[in-house]
Protein: Flagella basal body P-ring formation protein FlgA
Organism: Photobacterium sanguinicancri
Amino acid sequence: MSKTVTNKAHFSPLLLIVGIFAIIFSTIVHGTSTNYLHTVQQTAEDFVTDSLSAPQNGELQVTATQLDSRLRLAECTVPLNISVPGKQSMTGNVTVLINCPSEGWQVYVPVRVKLLLPRVVATKPLPRGTVLSASDLTIKLVENRFQRSVSFEDPNQVIGSKVKRGVNMGDTIEGNDICLVCRNDSVLIRAGGSGLNIVTNGTALGDGALGEQVRIQNNKSKRVVDGIVTGVGEVTVNF
């Protein structure tokens, strides 16, 4: 019994030293692995960033998803191979494949791409029928992929138009939300062709957003024509 106690006492310092070294070594390995995972993530992020061009008036945000900390990737002794497998679009979510030839590992790194563009948004809730004024609008950077239809960069493009359906505060003003030319509105008809330009008044027979075609009745001749919406209360007819 006493011998057993003596042996434990004899080996305790040795076991303690071994344990301390094991903890230190484990911490070093874990730290190295974690740092290298960050390097791999940053490599994927840089690859996508270098493949895209930032918009002149907007902002490009590229963020690699954090890799699982349980991954153990040996540090690569040669340059990493980087590619985007398949026919992926470089917008939205992109998966980057990173391969290390010397260590024989590969890993897929998800990367989120956000393209933010300046767009006209509502400064307050805008109920149906609201005629837009400057105080209703501001410009904000908005993620491009969330835009459903035509959007606008300049408030002057939509001031004076009428809200067709309610718009929440902070929402982008889109072509489907408003009519620059609305049914039964008085409109200015610009007609041109063969060097002849005519300006007259008419009545809209339907709603139209910027660039859309709408039927217009000439107030004088009562003739119905198709025109392209080119501004607030304005259509152009080409002969």
